[in-house]
Design a protein that fits this description.
By secondary structure, the chain is an alpha+beta fold. The chain has twelve helices and 19 strands. The strands form four sheets. Strands 3, 4, 5, 6, 7 and 8 form a six-stranded antiparallel sheet that branches. A six-stranded mixed sheet has the order 10-11-12-15-16-19, with helices on both faces. β3 (38-42) and β4 form a beta hairpin. α3 (76-84) packs across α4 (92-99). The protein is globular and about 60 Å long.
Length: 394
């Protein structure tokens, strides 16, 4: 833990969200630590910390939307800057947003809160002080799962990366798209989803990637097949650096399989060599379910990696409107990680192996996907629904 807290700020200065040392969360979780039963939003600019309570009969001491000024006498600005310095990413907003996922871990690791939180906050222009006792993590997880299951009347499935919900009264489909994971499962999901969309004569699609940090870009290609009108590509080119770790990754993926001619050529290349690959358009597949209505993609500063690439492709080919915040993932960015362990601490680390140029980007585009309609992320869904309500003959 001490080594992680020392080395991670150095890694973070690379400003590459794919080059990272993973925090030793397992050590923290072993003690069943107490946690704050609140959703926390972090920002690199004021207001730095905003809280909103879960809809649970647990702690009601912090009102929704309270601006936290300090925790255990540590100013909110320092807390956020310390957390940003322990997270990697191309933008400070992404690093703050991502760090909020492990807020209790950072409070304990940095400030030894030990489950007691003396909080000063502002709400309705009034300053108040409270002392909140945390809830043991395992107990809180059970309470949260029980509440979610009760609210939906069905148990929460594991690893739900994507789901579809219909709003037939406004001929709209909502894709809740949390991660670009499990290509085989996604291919089954997306084909059946667009079959349902066609059957129900849906005219509008909202794709929510506000909490999507990426994954397999092939999933983006498969999704875009149902939206594109012409052949397309997500990337113009990629520069790849060959390394021992990259070769080891290939061999791991080929265990029990015969190496192809391309694999052998790759393995024989010198380590340190840089190769440039130029991408070609992907032909359109024959599908009876191609969508021809209105598409809205919701983004935030948390939208990263393959999720940002997907948004850029939608924007470049004018397949839909991007609504929300500039993505945390850039349209020129590093990626395609190799993974290993440090020899003494056994901390897991990842390193980028490629530099990607998204479709429509040049070497100077070190920025995220800029939305067509710039809206705070938490208001993007309501804004999209209002747009749909005002579309004639939807």
């Amino acid at each position: 833990m001490d080594f992680y807290l020392l080395i991670q700020p150095l890694i973070a200065k690379l400003e590459d969200g794919h080059t990272d040392i993973k925090p030793p969360i397992h050590l923290y979780n072993q003690s069943n630590p107490a946690v704050l039963p609140y959703i926390i939003k972090l920002s690199p600019s004021k207001p730095y910390i905003i809280s909103s309570q879960y809809s649970l009969p647990l702690s009601k001491q912090l009102p929704d939307g309270a601006e936290i000024i300090s925790i255990n006498n540590v100013p909110a600005r320092k807390i956020v800057n310390d957390i940003i310095n322990l997270n990697t990413g191309e933008t400070r907003a992404f690093r703050a947003d991502f760090g909020a996922n492990y807020f209790d871990f950072y409070l304990q690791s940095l400030y030894k809160t030990n489950g007691t939180y003396r909080i000063s906050y502002l709400h309705n222009n009034r300053k108040k002080d409270v002392i909140i006792k945390g809830i043991p993590q395992q107990e809180f997880s059970k309470l949260l799962k029980h509440y979610n299951d009760s609210a939906s009347n069905t148990p929460s499935p594991e690893n739900v990366y994507y789901s579809l919900k219909l709003l037939p009264e406004i001929k709209t489909a909502l894709f809740d798209f949390r991660s670009f994971e499990d290509l085989d499962r996604f291919n089954v999901f997306i084909d059946s989803a667009f079959a349902v969309i066609k059957k129900n004569e849906i005219k509008n699609i909202i794709i929510d990637i506000r909490k999507n940090s990426g994954g397999d870009s092939d999933i983006g290609d498969e999704f875009i097949q149902y939206l594109a009108k012409t052949p397309f590509r997500q990337y113009d080119k990629v520069i790849e650096k060959h390394s021992r770790l990259l070769k080891e990754r290939l061999l791991d993926h080929r265990i029990g399989k015969i190496l192809t001619k391309e694999d052998s050529i790759f393995l024989n290349k010198s380590e340190g060599l840089l190769d440039t690959e130029v991408y070609e358009d992907i032909p359109l597949k024959n599908t009876p379910f191609r969508f021809d209505g209105n598409v809205y993609v919701l983004t935030s500063s948390y939208t990263f990696s393959s999720a940002a690439d997907f948004a850029q492709c939608i924007k470049h080919y004018k397949l839909g409107k991007i609504i929300g915040e500039e993505t945390g993932g850039l349209i020129v960015s590093y990626g395609d990680i190799v993974t290993s362990h440090l020899p003494h601490t056994q901390l897991v680390f990842t390193i980028s192996s490629k530099l990607y140029y998204n479709i429509g980007a040049d070497k100077n585009n070190w920025n995220g996907v800029n939305p067509d309609l710039k809206i705070p992320a938490d208001k993007a869904m309501d804004y999209a629904l209002k747009l749909i309500h005002f579309i004639p003959n939807h």
